[in-house]
Fold this sequence. Notes:
38% helix; 26% strand; 2 domains; Rossmann fold; alpha/beta; single chain; 6-stranded mixed beta sheet; 4-stranded antiparallel beta sheet; Alpha-Beta Plaits; 12 helices
Amino acid sequence: MATIEVKNYQQKFKNFSLKNVNFKVNSGTLHALIGESGSGKSVIIKSIIGALPTYKGKILIDNYKATKSKAKLKLGFSTNLEEFPSELTAYKFLNLLGDLSSIPKNYLQYNIKNLMIYFGLWEHRHKKLKSYSSGMKNRIMIIHSMINNPAIMIFDEPGANLDYKNRVRFYHFLMLQKQLGKTIFLTTHMIDELESIIDDCTIISDGKMLYSGTYDLFRQHSDYCIKVSNNKLLLKYFQANNISFIYHAENEEFIATMDYNMNMNEFFAYTLQNNVIVIYLKEIKNDLAQLKLKLARLGYLQEKSHINQQQSKKEKKKHEKIIKYARRHRTS
């Protein structure tokens, strides 16, 4: 069942627009909204939480319009505030936010204490916010999103300004919330750190939605950077096994998309049998560029090519020469 549903969402500004964004966030899942800086992620988040109520299309929270109070009561959200009340202590600030949400006092203070302890801020609770670092302020906003124990949690770039230790602590916290049946929707650019717990994702770029669906699409195969002693024999292997690849002529290396369990044993057996030396083989971690490249290879994007458009004419000729050789000597 969808807890958040975005239908035909459109938003237009002077120099930027979002068009035809459609996705669903299913109950009890972690759904990541992925895109480069300026792609429109925060705009969508603001519309979902009701901070940007003017747009075309429809946003539903548990079948309530996002602008309705019943929808907002379902949510807990964390965004990056530009300004904090600098003279307030962190503890006072969180209590004030809780009072605005009409949370019972005993329950509120119990939650604040436990969350501040978990995120390493309890000993700093009586310090004024003006003395807090940007990472500490970010943790305060994460705590704010949780103090009313919401069914749906929304985070806008929650890893921003957090050091590695606190990011890991936060990701562990997300896993615990998923186990409790919470629904989590967040924006991120730290894909490689989160992909083990992402269930679904929506990818946007330049105001357009490229993909929305299961993240398993990107887990099924990995990209590997491979350099060997005999490119022509390796190319024959790729073509004979229908393995998608890009050849970088300048570095004489291949970027190949393979299933590790299915392809690697065969790959190493082939190189041994044909006396091909593997100079290096490195797995490429997923980032936005890699996800877009995989989408292109799988036919989700129109920009599909085995040759990097930035290659020089000399590199293209070298690439074509290898392709022709492989076709003449292709094994069936």
